[in-house]
Protein: RecBCD enzyme subunit RecD
Amino acid sequence: MKPDATGDTTTFWAEVERLTEAGELRRLSGVFARFVASLGDGACARSTPLLLASLVLSELEGRGHSCLMLDDLVGDPAALLGWADEDWKALAKAAKPLPRGVKGWMSQLAGCEQVWRVGDLDYDQPLVLDDTRLYLRRYWRDETLVATCVRMRAQERRDVDIEQAHTWLEALFGAQRAGESPDWQRIACAVALRGAFAIITGGPGTGKTYTVARLLALLFATAPDAARQRIALAAPTGKAAARLKQSIDKALTDLADRVGGALPLRELTARMGAARTLHSLLGARPDTRSFAHHRGNPLDVDVLIVDEASMVHLEMMASLLDALPAGATLILLGDKDQLASVEAGAVLGDLCHDAQAGRYDAETLAYVQAASGETIPAGYEGQGGPLAQQTVMLRHSRRFGGPIGKLALAVNAGDVDGAAAALRAPDAAGVLRWIDHAHQHHVIQLANEGYRPYLELLRAGSGSHANHEEWVRAVLQRFEAFRVLCAVREGEWGVEGLNEAIELRLAHAGLIVRSDWYVGRPVMVTRNDYPTGTFNGDIGLALPDPARPGSLRVWFLEGDNVRSVLATRLRHVETAYAMTVHKSQGSEFAHTVLALPKEGGAVLARELVYTGITRASRQFTLTTPAPAVLGEAILRRTHRASGLRGMIEQ
Ligand SMILES: Nc1ncnc2c1ncn2[C@@H]1O[C@H](COP(=O)(O)OP(=O)(O)OP(=O)(O)O)[C@@H](O)[C@H]1O
Structure:
């Protein structure tokens, strides 16, 4: 069907302008739709269905979706955009005539020269129609690449000497079975051993790092060319990478004591090298989206472990898989229930669709039984695809059994009453606190108490420690013990409002002296900057430069190491007493305060609350302007449209 050539688009653009002014649309979405129109001839340029679909697609991209599902557009478009019904009706009226039903939309869009329908002649159109999903070409390409690589790698099988695997698993985990039955950690190791790809998912403290350290030892013990295996560790942020390396080193050292001389594990630890950010591993090129490593110049690795995989966005996952050499093994670790990446895609969530249910087939059941001695219970049997067979969920938390764990579980299960009861449980006093009718001053007071220890150590000066670096490390560690997390950026409950108010209060208490750069200012890097080696999300403290009295350096804590950059060299930073939950992923604070706003729209969702809670290791405080805010957030799920799962199962 050819687009309607008679359409007058004036009313449509006027309505787009009104919605943009009202804050319902980002300006970029209108600009993008105009750009798409400009690429067509007369009829295609005036096809209001195409304009409307481009507008909505761009808007959704800004909210993390990788495509527009035409079913959603036809079903409940106002809900899709989080708009009032009247706003959608006004826009749809201005865009008339619109096609009816999904089939009508498909044929209308396929008739536009700006759209490539998969299977038709491809001449690099900017939009792609794949079945009932409309994509920006870049996202379609990334999703296709991720789906193809994951499917292929998940199907690949290595030869496993079952007896040898069984013996080593007993040696690494101990003949005694822990309380958990079955032992999903052993199962994860067995499953990863037989393939080129595996996902180990689980909540905080379920032993993902503990397990992967044993997996590395198992690979080391069973690979014929173990001494030549190149192992790389990576994570989306510098901090998460340092934490991964630290935990794996510790686990391997403990393990070395257990297995004694049977395996040269210290040699393995020494050979692994530092964990790196994904950007640095792939060889990011400043000011471009491309990397030094890609299929033409693959990474030099045999085994790659990527932690905090929930933070990896679609484009990064595509780049990573593209750069992975054939024959290498990729292990993804992460918590599937955490917030998805800031950028488009919810890759780990999509890949872990079957993790909870298992859906292991007969071949997997038999293999796991033989290699690990573990029997997968009947409830986890099924006919899952290749990816389900290579995915294992760890279900027993060793660190989060107490009140924080109970609260996280209730939130994750969507149990509003359970979450409220957990927060108010008498035995949770001192660990959990809920200020349910909070005002901003409550959060400011908590920050004043929470940040005081590091500011006091700062005031005591470096003379209180053996040397300047020791002191810097101690100050950073105290700063890392407390954090205020927000759901939104703007307003009194947002990062901006709270940072300003906390800074004022600390200055008033005489703990800091405010200026552009001041001693003790916590900052977050907001853009990757290669010359200084600082990455989006890195958090540091401005402290005196021992070599240059009067000047400040920003110090970053990475594991037990500290590194610093001259403060004036950091151009893209913001104050970080309060930060978004998104940016807090991969970090843990002894006391975490989660400040929820009255109205946060779609952002205020279950995944956000769960991620905020699980950042707390010892104490968690929730503040809500009204009690109902918590329940509303727990009941709202984050949904990101993507075709990844469908493509993998094809
Ligand atoms: N099978 C086990 N036996 C004994 N201790 C264990 C076992 N599994 C995990 N642990 C311990 O539980 C703690 C949490 O494990 P680990 O750090 O591996 O969890 P994680 O899932 O990686 O956590 P996070 O998501 O916070 O990174 C560690 O102290 C670890 O040594």
